[in-house]
């Protein structure tokens, strides 16, 4: 943000106005913007040649690019970042968008997973982009853990929570595990878990293993680490990434190689790679975060943008995230308030139903 402010302060009023109008026109049309178009929109009366000179200066700064020698200019990713950080004006979602989101969350259904499914579909429909919803994990305090060997390469961890909820999770144990080593691992864990959630236990276990590695078989410690990290079983109580609106991006007019990049992106998402990264992205700051193109490794190949916001439980702890993927020429002024509004409503609904 500081860098954006510095660049904008170094611009004169005319350069800032030309840059703002050019980016807004590009975001609206998706096509390169020429000097004559800008000349008609400027408040002051200047020639097209003067505007072209300003555009050349902005291109020299790395804010604009010329796709073809005779075409107008488009903002670069750096230019879009400057616009978003320094010039973008945002208000509240309009009444129509709010009403559509409100209707989705207002449907009577006690199932959080079903509610988040509907949120993903509504967010995709409202924004005409692809929506992402990262559902919360079940985070009650644990009462008991047990490991059950099913085969040489397959085992089950049984988690009993203090509220009576029971989960069974499959995982692949390290080679050489025996029923005895699994019992030893379970006894080790059960001495630590009382009054702690699964995420808290993970941290405690790692610290205890570092301190007491000599007291516990190495294979058993490896099995603990992989067993606690396993999230193979799908279900409404598990961390789950909901992706909706793939067709909105795939139906965009574009070259075959661009569509293939978008397909690759969705294949990655549907295989649930880097799901945890969505929470990591949002934990670095409050409210909505915007990632443009190569600023996020998941979207650098497809050249897409991600607008994402966390939602929190009643204890103000981040438990999930909602977001929208679209082309870099997203209507950020409209999309950002929608994502922010949706995240706040989802957090309230999840907290009310917990």
UniProtKB/TrEMBL annotation:
Any one of the GO BP annotations: negative regulation of DNA-templated transcription
Any one GO MF annotation of this record: DNA binding
Keyword Cell membrane: no
Annotated ranges, domain Heat-inducible transcription repressor HrcA C-terminal: 115-336
Gene3D superfamilies: 3.30.450.40, Heat-inducible transcription repressor hrca homolog, domain 3 (3.30.390.60), Winged helix-like DNA-binding domain superfamily/Winged helix DNA-binding domain (1.10.10.10)
Entry keywords, A to Z: Repressor, Stress response, Transcription, Transcription regulation
InterPro entries registered for this protein in UniProt: GAF-like_dom_sf, HrcA, HrcA_C, WH-like_DNA-bd_sf, WH_DNA-bd_sf, WHTH_HrcA_DNA-bd, WHTH_transcript_rep_HrcA_IDD
Entry annotated with the keyword 4Fe-4S: no
Pfam family, one: HrcA
Start and end residues of each Winged helix-turn-helix transcription repressor HrcA DNA-binding domain: 14-77
Task performed by this protein: Negative regulator of class I heat shock genes (grpE-dnaK-dnaJ and groELS operons). Prevents heat-shock induction of these operons.
Similarity comment: family membership: Belongs to the HrcA family.
NCBIfam families per UniProt: hrcA (TIGR00331)
PANTHER family, sorted: HEAT-INDUCIBLE TRANSCRIPTION REPRESSOR HRCA
The protein, known as: Heat-inducible transcription repressor HrcA
Species whose genome carries this gene: Tritonibacter horizontis
Protein's gene: hrcA
């Amino acid at each position: 943000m500081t860098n954006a402010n510095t660049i904008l302060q170094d611009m004169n009023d005319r350069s800032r106005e030309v840059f703002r109008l050019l980016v807004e026109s590009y975001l609206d049309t998706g096509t390169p913007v020429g000097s004559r178009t800008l000349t008609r929109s400027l408040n002051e009366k200047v020639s097209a040649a003067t505007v072209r000179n300003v555009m050349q200066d902005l291109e020299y700064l790395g804010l604009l690019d010329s796709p073809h020698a005779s075409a107008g200019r488009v903002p670069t990713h750096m230019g879009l970042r400057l616009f978003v950080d320094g010039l973008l004006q945002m208000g509240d979602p309009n009444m129509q968008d709010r009403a559509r989101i409100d209707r989705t969350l207002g449907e009577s259904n006690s199932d959080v997973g079903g509610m988040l499914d509907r949120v993903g579909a509504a967010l995709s429909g409202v924004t005409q982009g692809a929506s992402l919803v990262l559902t919360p994990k079940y985070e009650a305090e644990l009462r008991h853990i047990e490991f059950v060997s099913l085969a040489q390469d397959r085992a089950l961890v049984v988690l009993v929570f203090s509220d009576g909820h029971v989960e069974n999770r499959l995982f692949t144990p390290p080679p050489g595990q025996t029923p005895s080593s699994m019992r030893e691992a379970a006894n080790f864990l059960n001495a630590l878990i009382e009054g702690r959630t699964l995420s808290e236990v993970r941290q405690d276990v790692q610290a205890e293993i570092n301190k007491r590695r000599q007291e516990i078989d190495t294979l058993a410690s490896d099995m603990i680490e992989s067993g606690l990290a396993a999230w193979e079983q799908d279900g409404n109580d598990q961390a789950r990434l909901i992706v909706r609106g793939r067709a909105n991006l795939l139906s965009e007019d574009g070259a075959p190689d661009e569509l293939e990049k978008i397909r690759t992106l969705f294949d990655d998402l549907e295989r649930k790679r880097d799901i945890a990264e969505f929470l990591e992205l949002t934990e670095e700051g409050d409210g909505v975060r915007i990632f443009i193109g190569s600023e996020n490794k998941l979207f650098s190949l497809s050249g897409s943008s991600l607008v994402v916001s966390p939602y929190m439980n009643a204890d103000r702890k981040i438990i999930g995230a909602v977001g929208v993927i679209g082309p870099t020429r997203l209507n950020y002024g409209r999309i950002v308030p929608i994502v922010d509004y949706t995240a706040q409503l989802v957090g309230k609904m999840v907290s009310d139903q917990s």
